[in-house]
Amino acid sequence: MTATAEVVTSSSETASRENIWRSIVREIRENHFPYLLLIPSILCFAALVIYPLVNTMIGAFSKTDTVGRAVEFGALINFRELVRDRYILNITIQTVIFVFGSVALTVVLSLPLALILNQRFPGAALARALLLMPWAAPLAISAMTWRWIFHDQLGALNYVLNTLNITQARTAWLSDPVLAFICVIFVEVWSSIPFMTIMFLAGLQSIPPHIYDAAKMDGANAWHEFWDMTLPQLKRITIIVTLLSIIWAFRSFNVIWPMTQGNPFFRTDNSVTYLYKLAFRSLAFGEGYALAFATFVFLLIFSVVYTRVLRSEEG
Amino acid sequence: MSVVVCKELVKRFGATVAVDHVNVEIQDGEFMVFVGPSGCGKTTTLRMIGGLETVTSGDIFIDGVRVNNLAPRHRDIAMVFQNYALYPHYKVFDNIAYPLRLRKRPKAEIEERVNTVARMLGVQHLLDRWPRQLSGGERQRVALGRAIVRNPKLYLMDEPLSNLDAKLRVQMRREIIHLQRNLGTTTIYVTHDQVEAMTMGDRIMVMRAGKVQQIGAPEVLYNHPANLFVAQFIGSPAMNAFKGRLETDDGKIVVATEFGRFPVGDPLVARLKPDRSPTLGAREVICGIRPEDITLDDAPVTPASPQAQVDLVEGLGADAYVSLTIGGTTLIARTPADCPPAENQLVTIHLNPNKLHLFDPITEETLLALP
After folding, report:
1. Residue A236 lies in a domain
2. How far A114 CA sits from the closest chain B CA (Å)?
């Protein structure tokens, strides 16, 4: 590492005289073995990340044909069409509510769960294993199962509600726009809780236990210990898991698509299911590319600002 | 300012007895040191006094009030921990201010008291730093500051110097002694280092396997250890010990060993406990002698002054530790460093007859009454 750093430093000093390419070639020639080891990773990254990203970017700024190929680069027509789309405003609002609503609910439910699982009690190990179950099942399968649970005629939910005499109505959970939206958020939260709880649990277990002893001696009660010690100590992990969850929720497809396909009337669509519909149902590939690219740019800016703002408070 | 009393204090962790019927009374303003090897129960006893461990049985009284079931925050005790236990997410100022904030003191008062304490401990220039930016010594000062800022009635210190380097430890040791004398607050200090115990404590409680071995002033523990464990734990190098038999030679009591017959001084004979009197016949004992009570010269050999071979000489500047082999027994003598014997040299050894220690070979208790 040090040798590489020195080479990098010296090459930057001579960059004014040398061609930048020649210095890169020299750097690779001098440290060829580490670079050789990097090649498989770089190739995978290029094939799976860079290529689709560049392709999306080109597609977003091009006129496309009916199979999604860019035919004329340099056009803003896709973005113009997207802005004119009659559903796009609703889709954007729904996406934001879906993302921030589900992540906030997941945080609010996962933290107490992690606090409980962090205690020593009989069966704690079993409880932790059970917690992971929603995560272990493939999400698309789980979402299909939930669709059946919410089915108005055959679903388990209505059966239980009817049997317990809570209501005799056969509620159409996934046909009512508001109920359907709540249902997809519910399943998104249900599927996200294991990961976030495990991350919080890891965070809790990495808090040095002696600070609680010190706080007790300083006069803290249980609430002070939680508020003054646990929460600040969980800040870093919270920043990371909420950021990841927000990004994942923005890209959520596996919950909404098997459950509702965005129905009724686009009222449970988010940007990803909608761009899928644009591209593969309406064959408006250009608009799909544009929406994907806009989401990517938004998430990139959001991630940078979010981490900067929260980290800056730590000094 | 407070008096702490532990009565028949017991702590069990499952089948393990960590603290076994400890009885101790710590006086108002006293600096009491709990000392013993790792796992002897000293820290557990301290944590029970602080309220961080529950009491299995027995009682703890602070100023006459039984505190067994009182939460730590209601005991008005401050504690300094071995690993400092600073709050990593608070700056130094907030670390010291935290106990005052919990007590909802006015902002101006908090500021003033934190600044006063910071000045007292020489950390006023660090108030705006994070704990991770401090050295070990600075962290320890901040931890002390957090303890003294609210003026509690009792300080508990759990090996606060053991993470510091040797030089800093000596310096901080002095600072803590000065601080305690100035504040006059009752302090209980836990350490495994007998040098710290001897230099800091008004009194010392020596523990082993959960049991109290002896409680007393440092010089009492050093000169009149209650048993062989205390004798060998207190003092460095440790007291020499070898097997012998109390016998009578021409009306004088001697310790007969396989390498010599050492007379027991009259003051010691007077202190031999009555029921342990050797007059009824020969009695097996363990004889102890501190390294500084052995003198070496080249005088003629007698049964009371046998010859030993020098194995190793460790110079320490002011004096030297001389390892000697005599009849299969190894002894350590402490001599002035200006004229130590040479290695492999044969020397005559003299044991100070008034400084012998005699212990029962089975119970290892002392056979000598306190003077």
Report:
1. yes
2. 21
Q: Which of A227, A251, A268 is the last residue of a domain?
A: A268
Is the pLDDT reported for residue A5 higher than 50? no
Of A211, A233, A235, the CB nearest to B85: A211
Chain A interface with B: residues with Cβ < 8 Å: 208, 210-211, 213-221, 224, 228-229, 232-233, 235, 315
Domains in chain B: boundaries? 4-233, 240-359
* Enclosing domain of residue A8: 1-30
pLDDT of B318 > 80? The answer is yes
- What pTM did the predictor assign? 0.81
More confident of the two residues B234 and A167: B234
The mean pLDDT of A243-268, rounded to a whole number, is 89
Q: Find, in chain B, the residue whose alpha carbon is nearest to that of A314.
A: B89
The pLDDT value recorded for residue B67 is 96
Kindly state which CATH superfamily the domain B4-233 is placed in: P-loop containing nucleotide triphosphate hydrolases (3.40.50.300)
Contacts of A211 (CB under 8 A, 6+ apart): A229, A233, B85, B86, B87, B88
Yes or no: say if A108 and A196 are a contact pair by the CB < 8 Å rule: no
Averaged pLDDT score across all residues of chain B: 93
Across the interface, do B51 and A216 touch by the CB < 8 Å criterion?
A: yes
Residue of chain B nearest A221, judged by CA positions: B73
The whole-number pLDDT of residue A206 equals: 93
- pLDDT: which is higher, A64 or B69: B69
CB within 8 Å: B78 and A315: no
CA B194 to chain CA centroid, nearest Å: 4
Superfamily of domain B240-359 in CATH is Nucleic acid-binding proteins (2.40.50.140)
**Contact (CB<8Å) B85/A210:** yes
How close are the terminal C-alpha atoms of chain B, in Å? 32
